[in-house]
Structures are given as C-alpha cells and as structure tokens.
Design a protein that fits this description.
Blueprint (H helix, E strand, L loop, with lengths): L2 E5 L4 H13 L4 E4 L2 H4 L10 E4 L2 E3 L2 H11 L8 H24 L9 H19 L9 H15 L8 H10 L3 H4 L11
Parallel strand pairs: 1-2
Antiparallel strand pairs: 1-3, 3-4
Length: 190
C-alpha cells in the first residue's frame, strides 16, 4: 500500500498533513508539488493532495480525516474542536489568498472585498487567542491554529503577539513532528 502526500514545504495546509502523517506511524512519502503542477492532477487545483489506497484526496481536511481514521481515531473530537479548526481554517484561507493576491498588487487598501478578508483574519486571530483550546500535539484544532500562526509569522503578514497563541505554538514546537516541518526548513523531507 502506498501513501503519497503532494504539496509544497511552505504551505500551512500541507504542513498540517505532514505532521499528522508523521504522528500516524503509517508508511508514507512526500512528493514536492507546486500548485501549478496540481492543476493537472486535481480538480481542486491546489496542494495538498494525497494518493492512497488507489484514491485521490484533494483537500487537507479530508486528508487529515483519512489519516486519523487509519490511526483508529476521530478527526475533530467534538463540536468545540470543529469550531476552532474551521475558524482557523477560514482565517488561513483568507490569509493565503491575501498573500498570493498581494504579489499582483491586489491589497485590502485597493479592494473592498480583500479588506473584508483581512478583517476576517484579524477577528479570527483575536477569537482564537481568547478561546479555550487543547495544546495536545495530536489535536487537529490545535495543530491547525499553530500551522496558521507559524505561517503568518513566517510570512510576516500579521503581528501575532497574543500570549496564549505564542505559548501554544512554543509547546507544539517541542514536538519534532511539528518543529521539523516549519516552512523555513524546506530542505527537510519527512
């Protein structure tokens, strides 16, 4: 049986999948793949995507669910976890889009819709900082939040200085599966 994760080293969505796979004990491989290359393979036209069991999984959340189920675990243990995971995911989607569009001079300063996206990210950061959340290194809500925070800091997009977010990130960085996948470590394969 072959499990191959395709994606970029800097994508926070790919990072979360890499962490989950590293924690899983499953045999898997990582294939660096650009978003441009993904357009020929997946209708989602983005990374990550996963080939496993003769199937193609085209979204990080579905990939995580597949990995956790293979471990005999539930993906997102309860509604509170789901709420935090999806809030972080929405903020991350907006932040990634803002980052990519800024490369083409599309910014919140000149596009009202993008201002709303920026406001969503800022509001989500505040809500995530105030939320009660687990710091368990295998909790997917905590991991998604940490991947978001670390990526936003790496890209220098947002001043994220909330002590609760930084202390959670520091705890997760003690886990080698998380720390070894930091976007700056693009030379490290799983």
């Amino acid at each position: 049986m072959s499990i191959v994760l395709h994606g970029s080293f800097t994508s926070p969505f790919v990072r979360h999948c890499r962490v989950a796979l590293a924690q899983s004990g499953l045999h898997w491989a990582f294939e660096p793949t650009s978003s441009a290359d993904a357009t020929a393979v997946t209708p989602a036209m983005r990374v990550p995507f996963l080939r496993a069991d003769g199937r193609l999984f085209t979204d990080s959340s579905v990939i995580l669910q597949y990995v956790r189920e293979r471990q005999g675990r539930r993906f997102l243990a309860d509604l509170e976890d789901a709420q935090l995971y999806h809030l972080a995911n929405a903020a991350l989607d907006s932040a990634v889009n803002l980052f990519l569009l800024s490369k083409n001079d599309r910014t919140p300063d000149n596009t009202p819709y993008l201002k709303r996206q920026r406001d969503r990210v800022v509001a989500a950061i505040s809500a995530l900082a105030d939320a009660q959340r687990p710091d368990d290194g295998e909790n997917d809500a905590a991991l998604r939040i940490a991947c978001f925070v670390d990526w936003a800091r790496y890209r220098k997009l947002y001043e994220i200085e909330q002590p609760s977010l930084l202390s959670s990130l520091a705890r997760l960085n003690q886990d080698d599966a998380f720390a070894s996948t930091h976007p700056s470590r693009s030379d490290t394969a799983p």
